[in-house]
Each structure stands twice: as structure tokens, then as C-alpha cells.
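stage 2 :: seqdesign
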């Protein structure tokens, strides 16, 4: 069987460079796929063509997301946004969802996936997280001050989910580099994992073959052989093989 081609979304740096961390590319290769770094296209016809050409999609982390995409104005804690990237990923994700092609969405990717499907997010969890949801708990440090390959806190997978199956029903540690997070789940999605403070750490589609969003960065953990990170990328590539 041919190796599947996985599109890897990228950020725009200083308005002149398309950039993606090598760990994303290497994780796809290690799992048996062929990664293709995607430019942030603005023509919908070109995005449509691209969606038909690639077998799977890896939506990477990066800058904050424009809150007007889900009907809110900017919170004071909102960071830098890249409108071109928001548009490209929103349109591409919606086309992938309609085609039922595999998606793995990481950190910012998890948030834009949920928004593209009709959900929303916290613009800044430290300022907006509802105290009632925390049940008198303190928010964890979700922007760790440690190497990217270090696992800093636990996530707790929900029963009858992909992550429950991949973790054999046990909690596991992840790395963490975010101040935004999914709030209201999109229709057709379900909660897949939370951290101990109640923040949504993973979501997945109820109706698609493989659509998973995780708030941590498994691509940084693959190189050290983290079994949960390796399994996530293996599952992505296995799902992509049916699209080849």
C-alpha cells in the first residue's frame, strides 16, 4: 500500500515566512506517512483542490485565534492573531469534515477545529474560566516553563473514546503550552479528556472515522518514545491509509 500524504499546516512568521516545527514533520514520517507543509492559501477553489489531493491533515499549534470567528470581541488577554491562517484552516477543516478525511489537530489546532465545526473557546483561560466549573480548584500551569519534551501534568481520558482506548483507560502525562482552550463543544463532537482542573484537553468527532483534537503537543514527545504520543500518530496514519 502507498504511504499516505499528510498535509501539515504552518504559521506565518514576520509576514514573510511559512514555518512549521520539524517535530511535526518527523512525527508523521516516523508513523509511516509523507508530510507536506501547506501554505496558507486564500482562494477557496485552491483550498478545495488541496483538500482532495491529500489523504490526511495535521493541524499544528501557534498563535491565537480571531474571536470574531465565534461571535466575540477581543479579550484583553488575547495574543497575536494571523487572519490568513485562521481563514485557511477554517475552510480546509470544513472541507475535510465534509469529506470524512482523517484530522489530528494539536493545541491551537484543537481550538480552530472546534470553531470550524461550530463551537467556541476561552480566549484566555486564566481570566475567563468559570469558578463554578473549577469547583474551588486552582488552574494548573498550562504554559509550562520546561523543555517541550517534558510532560508537566496529567490528562484523564473519558470512557468509550479513542484516547481511552489508546491509553488503556489510564491517566497519562502530557506537555502544555497554551492559554486558550475549548469551551463549548461543537455539535457532533464529544469530550475525550480533561486535566484535573477541568480544562478540556481533547475532543473527538462522534460521526467521523478519525477526527481528534488534543490540547498538548504529542509531536514533541514522539522523539523520546512516549507511547501515548506514538500511538496517536500511528492511529492518524492508519486512518489515512483508507484515503489513499
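stage 2 :: out
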Amino acid at each position: 500500500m502507498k504511504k499516505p500524504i499528510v498535509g501539515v499546516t504552518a504559521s506565518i512568521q514576520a509576514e514573510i515566512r511559512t514555518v512549521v516545527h520539524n517535530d511535526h514533520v518527523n512525527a508523521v514520517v516516523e508513523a509511516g506517512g509523507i508530510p507536506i507543509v501547506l501554505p496558507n492559501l486564500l482562494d477557496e477553489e485552491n483550498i478545495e483542490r488541496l483538500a482532495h489531493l491529500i489523504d490526511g491533515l495535521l493541524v499544528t499549534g501557534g498563535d491565537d485565534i480571531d474571536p470574531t470567528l465565534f461571535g466575540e470581541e477581543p479579550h484583553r488577554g488575547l495574543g497575536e492573531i494571523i487572519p490568513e491562517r485562521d481563514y485557511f484552516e477554517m475552510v480546509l477543516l470544513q472541507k475535510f469534515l465534509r469529506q470524512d478525511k482523517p484530522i489530528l489537530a494539536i493545541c491551537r489546532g484543537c481550538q480552530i477545529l472546534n470553531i470550524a465545526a461550530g463551537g467556541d473557546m476561552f480566549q484566555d483561560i486564566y481570566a475567563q474560566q468559570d469558578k463554578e466549573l473549577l469547583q474551588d480548584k486552582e488552574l494548573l500551569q498550562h504554559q509550562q516553563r520546561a523543555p517541550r519534551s517534558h510532560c508537566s501534568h496529567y490528562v484523564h481520558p473519558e470512557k468509550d473514546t479513542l484516547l481511552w482506548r489508546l491509553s488503556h483507560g489510564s491517566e497519562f502525562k502530557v506537555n502544555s503550552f497554551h492559554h486558550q482552550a475549548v469551551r463549548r463543544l461543537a455539535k457532533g463532537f464529544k469530550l475525550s479528556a480533561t486535566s484535573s482542573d477541568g480544562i478540556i484537553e481533547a475532543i473527538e468527532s462522534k460521526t467521523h472515522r478519525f477526527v481528534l483534537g488534543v490540547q498538548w503537543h504529542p509531536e514533541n514527545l514522539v522523539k523520546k518514545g512516549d507511547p501515548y504520543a506514538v500511538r496517536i500518530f500511528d492511529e492518524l496514519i492508519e486512518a489515512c491509509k483508507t484515503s489513499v
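stage 3 :: structure notes
- The chain has a mean pLDDT of 93.
- The radius of gyration is 17 Å.
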